[in-house]
Structure formats: C-alpha cells, structure tokens
Amino acid sequence: MISRMVKFISCGLLIFICLQPGPVAGQSVLDPKLAQAIDLEIEKNRAEMIKIRRFLHMNPELGNRELETAKLIASKLSSLGLEVKTGVAGTGVVGLLRGTLPGPTVAIRADMDALPIQELNTFPYRSLNPGVMHACGHDGHVAMLLGAAALLKEKEGELPGRVSLIFQPAEEGDGGAQEMIDEGAIDGASMIFAGHIDRLYELGEIVVQPGLISAYTDEFSILIRGPGGHGAKPQETSDCIVAAGQLITSIQGIVARETHPCSPAVITVGSIHGGTAANVIASKVVLAGTIRTTSPETRAACRDSLKRMTQAMEQLHRVTTAFTFVEGYPPVINDPAAARIAAEVAAHIVGQDKVKGQPLPSLGGEDFSFFLQKIPGCLVRFGAKHTTLHDAPAHSPRFDFDEGVLATGARFLAQAALCALARLGEQRARAHATM
C-alpha cells in the first residue's frame, strides 16, 4: 500500500507562526507578514494533502482494522523525523515533537476509520474496498493532521514544550478514544484540539463553541416474546408484532410529555425485526434504537421511561419482554479556555466574520468527548460544503467534501497547538512568579 503512495508533503522551509502572548481586544495575535508566509507554504503543500486524502479515500478501513492506514501514517511521521509509537489501542499511532525549550504538552487528534457503506460516487478516487467507505471525512482529518505535522516540524527547535499528534482508530461507534486514553496516549498532555469536516458550513468557515456541543449516544434493544400462532386464530395466542407496534407509538410520548421541553432529547427506533410469514403470528420481535440527550437528568428519564413502557407491554399483551440499555459516548463539552484559543486562531486563519458559533448542540456524537473528560480541549468544525453534491450528507454513499478544507484544517491544528503552548507557558510562569 505504501509503495503506491505518492510522495508525501515536501519538507521545505516552513516559515510558521509567532503567536503573541495574551492579546488585548482588537490586537492581532499573528504578525501579518508571517501570516502571509504561512499562506504561501500551505499553498505549496495543498496538492500533496489532497493526494494523501484521495489515497486514503480509495483504501478505507473499518474501525480497529486500520492496519494499512496506520502503517502509512507511521511511515510519513517517521520520514519527518518525529518520534512514533504504533499499536496504541491496536491500530492507533502517536507522533511526538519535542521542542528544545521546556514547557507543557499539547495534543492534536484525528480519527482515521471508515464506515460500512458501499460508495456510489464515480470519481476516480472512489473506494476500492467493497462495502467500506470514508463517508464522514476521516480521510480528510488524517491528511490535515499529517499536514500540521509537517508545519510543526519546521518549528520543532523553537517549540516551548511538546506536541503530541494522535491518530485514533474506531471513532465510529467503538469508542477508540477511550482505549487510546487507557494506553497512555494523552499522558502528560495539558490540552487537546481536534476538528471535524462539516458540509453544513461554507468552505472557509470554522465553528467554535464553548461548552456542550453534542449529545450522549446511548443505544437500547427490546426483545418481545410470545407463543406465536396461526394468523387466522389470534385469540389463541399473544401477538408480539401488535405489542411492538403499540410500544413504538407509546415511545413517542416520552420526549413530548416526560422530559423537560428545554432539554433536547430524541428517541429513535431504527430497527424492527419480527415474523417469518404472512399467515404466522410472530413469536419474537426485536426492536433497536438510540437515545440522544444532553443532560444526565434527561438521559435517566428517557431510559427509565422506556424501560417502564416496555414492561407495561407484558400486562397489556400477555408477552414477555427484556430491555437492554447500552451506554454510548458522553457529550462533547468544550473547555472555555481552550475554546478561546480556538476562536483566536480561527479568526486569524479565516477572519472574524467566518468564525461561527453553534448556539444549539448537535444530537450527534463524537468520542473526542472521552479526551475532554480527562483534559481541557476543544473540538471545532471546518466548513466544507461541496459545490455540486448538496444532497449528500455525512454517512451518505455519495458523501464528498470540498478539499480546500484540508489547508484550513492543517493551519488550524498546527496554530492551535502553538498558541496553546504559549498560553499554558504563560500560566505556568505566572504561577511560579506568585509562589
């Protein structure tokens, strides 16, 4: 696979950023001449990042199976001269840049797994792996972080601390972030940043929001059993399908009548399986779905109400039931201080008018939340609306994005790391001065 890879980002001289400590309102944190130099260097590397993204798009791998993807990442980090640790949480990769100056450690993260989707796009770099597709932009995330690695490498000797680059497996449902944490991926880090490609926003927009931005992603399954019987003789048995139908209808009342109207919640039954023939009353029905909430109280209320309604079907329809609740990802809660750094950096990359807020939380999920339970950090969104595929959202078999976002993401991740090192260093210096 690596032998097919085009030459990686050339490591010419990258004149990079010089963030000023603690700017006052209206004062620039980035020298305009250096900003122009950064833009020139990014333009030189733009084509290479696109090649990396397209190569990964053609060779997608599912969560915890990203073996070739990990080999590629490790090879490119090693060629840049970074310290590289492989096999973290199975297929995860961590690269480390050590500055010559003492200071804190800041982490920047990309997820790298694909989805079990058969791609329907027809462009030349469509997936070569049947039934597997990068339909959420993780191929772009990897390309961005590799681009940021090349940019940061040129400033390694001046770094006031260390930068850890985390390439994480299994974001799509398997919670790879927690396994990376368990194996020490963020040990010693003081802050972490990440970004996600988002086609809801225009290219050149960056979404930064402190506080809660996503939901709990819990799942449930319900098993309904009865004796089964002949479709012409319902009086002789219990009908699991009728019980399931009433339960699905009743569930809609939980959010409408049993949760606080100002606390977002969604309960979706996404799967129902039961019955084998038109004239047979089913002896088993299995329902499965998701519960999305943004507060512990609403989460508990939805879970308990769903369990109560399930059990009520036993008396109503003379069936037996079993309710299973599976905890998913916690919500992403951006740290206010990290979000301020992200907003400053975003403003100097795309302009203040292109920095957008997210007033309402998404009820989607992201396992970056596990990192944020351990250390402060911020997840932003990079606008990448495609000019020709307006009807192909994330997780769609025709998903694609404007590849201009790769340069935006690489600049943001690298500059956020450097800005965070500066801010954290200032905090440590002030703390020592008052001792």
* Average pLDDT rating: 91
Q: Strand fraction band?
A: 15-25%
Structural class: alpha/beta
Identify the overall geometry: elongated
Spatial strand arrangement across the major sheet: 1-2-4-3-5-16-6-15
- Biggest pleated-sheet summary: 8 strands, mixed
The first-to-last residue Cα distance is: 55 Å
Total of helices: 9
The number of E-state strands comes to: 16
CATH class of the largest domain: Alpha Beta
Helix fraction bin? 25-40%
Low-pLDDT stretches are: 2-28
CATH topology of the largest domain: Aminopeptidase
Number of domains: 2
Q: Which superfamily, in CATH terms, is the homologous superfamily of the largest domain? A: Zn peptidases
- As a whole number of angstroms, the C-alpha radius of gyration is 25 Å
CATH architecture descriptor of the largest domain: 3-Layer(aba) Sandwich
Order of SSEs? HHEEEHEHEEEEEHEEEHEEHEHEH
